[in-house]
Amino acid sequence: MIETGALRAEWTKFSSVRATMVLSLATVTVSGLFGWLFANAAATGYATATTQERLDFQPLLMAGRGMFIVQLLISALGVLVASSEYGSGTMRASLAAVGRRGSLLAAKAGLTALTALPVSVASVWLMFTTGQSTLAVSGAPYAMPGDPAALQMLLLGPVVLTLISLFGLALGFLLRGTAAAANVSTAFLLVPVLAGSAPGFLRDLLSTYWPTGAAFQAVTGTSELSPVVSYGVLVGFVAVMLVAAFVQFKNRDA
């Protein structure tokens, strides 16, 4: 159970840290920028594509590639919710005010989800709008918001990004430092992107079953797994990370 008073206190701390507010705004801005950049590149390629390449063209995948970059920012947002207190030395004061470590972690997780979700919604919808508009203006195939695949991206994409922010929060508690947690988060999240250079079997394994890769493939409609399994892998992974963060936070001095 998340205590209302603790949640309000977390919001006060979150809104008073300039980095978190700037990062939230930057995440939305970058989403629109990369939606346009990737869609523009895809439209340029479509103009000179072969017949088969045009048949294989996937507008959601082409314009949604920016999510692989946006996830780094939304994860860093979660990292800051925990690591900023370790960096400023206020974690002990927060514990004294709340009284229970589980309640403090729950409040931070609730605050992370409640702030990351609207940021994620704005980011995904802006990326979709700029991307598909760019494709349409350029004469390439594009998706409409009412299309089933587009609806899945618009509704579940923000949920995936919010889960990734909770992964960042868990890393912030586990590693207790912004730089260390952000670096580990970046390396972990980029594995599916870099998997293309791995040998065949390893490439297929990483791109299909890596927690964030599986979820993003489901969002863009390119997953070989069922949606339940694709999203379930990420949900289970984030749950394990939060439990690990709680165990360390409970048994280690603040």
Automatic annotation (TrEMBL):
Keywords: Membrane, Transmembrane, Transmembrane helix. The chain crosses the membrane at residues 21-43, 63-83, 104-129, 149-175, 182-202, 228-249. This is ABC-2 family transporter protein. The lineage of its organism: Bacteria, Bacillati, Actinomycetota, Actinomycetes, Streptosporangiales.
